[in-house]
Design brief:
5 helices; 3 domains; OB fold (Dihydrolipoamide Acetyltransferase, E2P); alpha+beta; 3-stranded antiparallel β-sheet
């Protein structure tokens, strides 16, 4: 199972294992980039998330707060451009609250792309019923180019996953996906999403995913 790691995340206490995408500080190994943890007995490396996300107005994205300023938050949305969430775009922002009392560095959020200026500075908003800080559940990462396949025609693949597993799923156009629900069912959903990503170019994928979920549910029940 692949785990998403953020820059600065501790990935090993053995500096001899440090591989690509990592750095060593005080004898410990940390992730240098946002990516997928690849860990073996001989090496720990971080695989960068493939494919670049280019934002469009109206996109739903999942981001990580990187900086807190006096008037908002700088958010990493896994794209080459800076994203900013102004305080006035946070719902029900109380005037007596400071930005760092609402969202801190490292917090994950679901937001929407509100505006993109000519210099490609991205402005986000959370004034949408879909948007929220992520306080629980799980975030998985895929190649942003595979997002349409994970969603499916008219949302068919997501409906399949939600219906079969009874989990909440919000797909960010930037390749990060939030899952929430029963822990075992989330794990099955995560495995199914990675399978869709890997086999996105093949035919008959919906049937295979249906069968895969059915088989995994049976295994969980037996366990």
């Amino acid at each position: 199972m692949r785990k998403i790691v953020l820059p600065g995340d501790l990935v090993s206490t053995n500096p001899k294992l440090a591989g690509s995408g990592t750095y060593i500080e005080n004898g410990r190994v940390y992730s240098k980039i946002l990516g997928l943890l690849d860990q073996t007995e001989t090496q720990v490396r971080i695989i960068p998330l493939k494919g670049r996300y280019i934002p469009s107005v109206g996109d739903t994205v999942i981001g990580i707060v990187r900086e807190v300023t006096a008037n908002g938050w700088i958010v990493d949305i896994h794209c080459p451009y800076t994203a900013f969430l102004p305080v006035q775009e946070y719902p029900n922002m109380k005037p007596d609250k400071k930005p760092n009392e609402i969202l801190e560095i490292g917090d994950a959020i679901i937001a929407k792309v509100l505006n993109i200026d000519p210099k490609m500075k991205v402005t986000l908003t959370m004034k949408d019923k879909l948007c929220r800080p992520i306080r629980f559940g799980r975030i998985v990462a895929i190649n942003p180019a595979r997002v349409p396949r994970v969603i499916g025609k008219k949302g068919s693949m997501i409906k399949l996953l939600k219906g079969e597993l009874d989990v909440q799923i919000i797909v960010g156009q930037n390749g990060l996906i939030w899952l929430n629900g029963d822990r075992r069912k989330i794990t099955i959903a995560e495995e199914a999403i990675y399978k869709i990503e890997q086999e996105a170019h093949t035919e008959g994928l919906t049937d295979r995913i249906t069968e895969f979920i059915k088989r995994r549910k049976e295994n969980v029940t037996k366990a």
